[in-house]
Amino acid sequence: MLSSFKFRLFYIACVLIPVGVLAQSSKVAAPAPVLPVPTPAQLAWHEMEMNAFVHFTTNTFTDLEWGYGDEQPAIFNPTQTDAKQWARTLKEAGFKTMILTCKHHDGFCLWPSQYTEHSIKHSPYKNGKGDIVKEASDACKQYGLKFGVYLSPWDRNRADYGTPAYLTYYRNQLKELFTHYGPVFEMWFDGANGGDGYYGGAREKRRINGATYYDWPTTLDLVRSMQPNVIFFSDAGPGVRWVGNERGVAGETNWNTISTDTLYAGKPNIEQLLNTGSADGQQWVPAEVDVSIRPGWFYHTKEDSQVKTPEQLFNIYLTSVGRGSTLLLNIPPDRRGLFHEIDVKSLQGFSAILKKEFGKNLALKAAVQADSYRGKQAAFAARNLTDGNKETYWATDDDKTTGSFTVTLPAYSTVQYVVLQEYIKLGQRVKAFTVEAWQDGAWYKVAEATTIGYKRILKFNPIKTNQIRVTITDAKACPVISNIAIY
Ligand code: FUL
Question: For residue 373, how far is the Cα from the chain centroid?
């Protein structure tokens, strides 16, 4: 006879375990990814949302946007440079990173490169002992920002620009930047190539073949061998792409996917393609929205009255982050080497608007119901949309490319923003959706849009409501949505 302890074991082995296995095998698996999907470094980049650009060089002192390359290093003389002021201001305004123009098209280097004399080491700045790349990267570390570098491929100072020797020079500089200044999260490869320049005294126009001259694959491999996780920005990525304009506006339809082999300089309407990406794109190369807080990229006193207002910056936030891209906002230090007071004030005002508009998410932990959910399993249920956990999501069965869910707010409230996020680890899917608000016994359509991606923010006329319904009307595969927020 079995003792009662043994009987329990016997019961567990013969009855409960098989039932458990059966129950498990009837579970529906998570949706298969819709390819392509982001790399872990790209995912981290999406989550940064707000990045800052810092343009600083001899142009700041010559009042130019593109230096010719014949500027004397002696003119670079910022007397109060304080990279900590830049980093502190950015941190307080909600930015996650800082990308510095270590060398712009004029070729002047903000660090004492051993490969050129055209640098800060021949400027009066700290008697030639200064290193602004180091100051900036140290300040980033101190304030918890990631650091990125811009190293212009076009160099109007170098005599060897246009020959193979210049590529060795350029790569040597990358070695300096990627080994002496700590982790670099992003490398910005500017596509500008204007032709004429000083070129060591030749003062002529030089044309290079943008498709072949730089031999990018070799350069990217070199950088990856030093820092494997760096994100490369260029028109065609491979990490992130240009958004096609410098106005701060991502496409209303914005796919993170695009086929990079179809991108080439001079292609008709390339800006339009970069702006929207393409639903059937073969690579994940999201758009980065670079725009300056001033009309120019460099500081000019005459533009002090044209600094973008907090409201303008907020609108840019809505057309960049709010359309599933990240914002790369440029703030140029002035001739003192400081962010100008007007710019600082505007950034503070911008961050105050963000806090005011997005301070309290009315949907957090709110009740939510979907018309269906995947396999009727809690793992894919609608409540994942409002649980505040970015790793959980609502998904439908595979045979559906539509679906809707309704959030019930704790009380009638005036709302004017709905924020949606796809679980992009499984790819970007949604092609069209609507948002409705319940009022006086009826649904009113308050917004209609196409793509969602990492984050979509819809702003509409304020409406008093206690229910918001989102309907996905078209998608590449079953919708997988991780978050809804309502403000
Ligand atoms: C452009 C450059 O020519 C501008 O000077 C600036 O650096 C901007 C971010 O990219 O291509």
Answer: 31
